[in-house]
Amino acid sequence: MTQTPSAPSQRNVLVTGGNRGIGLAIARSFVAAGDAVVITHRSGDAPEGLTAVRCEVTDTASVNAAFDEAEKILGGPVEILVCNAGITRDTLVLRMSDEDFDDVISTNLAGAFRCVRRAVRGMIRLRRGRIILIGSVAGMSGGAGQANYSSSKAGLVGLARATSRELGGRGITANVVAPGLIETDMTANLSEEVMASYLSSIPAGRLGRVEEIAETVLFLASPGAAYLTGAVIPVDGGLGMGH
Predict the structure, then answer these.
(1) Could you tell me where the DSSP H helices lie in 86-230?
(2) Crossing angle of helices 111-126/60-74, nearest 10°?
(3) Phi and psi, residue 75, nearest 5°
(4) Would you give the distance in Å from CA 187 to the centre of its chain?
(5) Is residue 2 within 8 Å of residue 16, measured between CB atoms?
(6) Any bridge partners for residue 179, and if so which?
(7) Which pTM was predicted?
(8) Would the N or C end of the chain have less CB density within 10 A of its end CB?
């Protein structure tokens, strides 16, 4: 039986949208674990202690250039890809424009595809790799006013599973982490009434923490998750149970 080469103790990690929120927590967790990490961002400065490259995931040329730059910084191919970059354009279906829908799909779903397509080149040569897509509970249960966002996150499941079937025999896994309501800058601005309504629907009775998403991602990137692929891991306090 052919054995897959063992991974080095320090791995090359790329986190898209790693400059804030969940992506930032994920990037910092990999750094704390001793890995070499590069994040992508569209604007602003790199967070303290992290190396960043500019990337617009809706543009193939930008994605390819970002990977080229990241691989120069890392000194080799990306071994762990975390696709976290995403946007929302929430509104009811009757009011949703083509642009609202297309922008979210192009960023959240097609953007992840562009990054996966570029990343697997190096992973195939290495005969190992971890692809972790950040989905959402909305991708499984739907979200009112989020036809575009829910569709984009549901599509990530198909992307992960198709990739798993194509590349599973090459030591490459692809999984989806599906967060529920997480403590971020966005949820911090919710009114007490809206927050109480959300909390009443979560069996755990609280919002999740970005560190809890990061820990799940670290597990999927660990040797212990080598036989786990094509899965959807909910981190939602039970909000999406049954899906």
Answers:
(1) 98-104, 111-126, 138-141, 147-167, 185-188, 192-200, 210-220
(2) 40
(3) 80, 20
(4) 19
(5) no
(6) 235
(7) 0.94
(8) N
In this structure, are residues 165 and 208 in contact, taking their beta carbons and an 8 Å threshold? no
> What span, in angstroms and rounded, lies between the C-alpha atoms of 26 and 219?
11
Beta-ladder partners of 39: 15, 52
Which residue in 21, 18, 56 sits closest to 35, CA to CA? 18
Catalogue all structural domains in the chain, each as residue range(s) with its CATH number. 12-233 (3.40.50.720)
- Name the token pair of 128: 């190992």
Lookup result for tokens 């400065």: 45
In this structure, are residues 169 and 4 in contact, taking their beta carbons and an 8 Å threshold? no
Both structure tokens of 71: 């691989």
Contact 110, 85 (CB under 8 A): no
Please confirm, yes or no, whether 149 is among the known catalytic residues: yes
CB 204 within 8 A of CB 138: no
Given the residues 30, 67, 101, 149, select the one marked as catalytic: 149
Whether residue 66 contacts residue 40, with contact meaning beta carbons closer than 8 Å, is answered with: yes
Q: What are the mean pLDDT values of the chain's consecutive 10-residue runs (243 residues total)? A: 58 97 97 98 91 98 98 98 96 97 98 98 98 96 93 98 98 97 81 85 95 98 98 96 79
How many Cα atoms within 13 Å fall on the side-chain side of residue 123? 29
Q: What is the pLDDT of residue 189?
A: 74
CA Rg value for the chain: 17
Q: Which residues contact 113 (CB under 8 A, 6 or more apart)?
A: 159
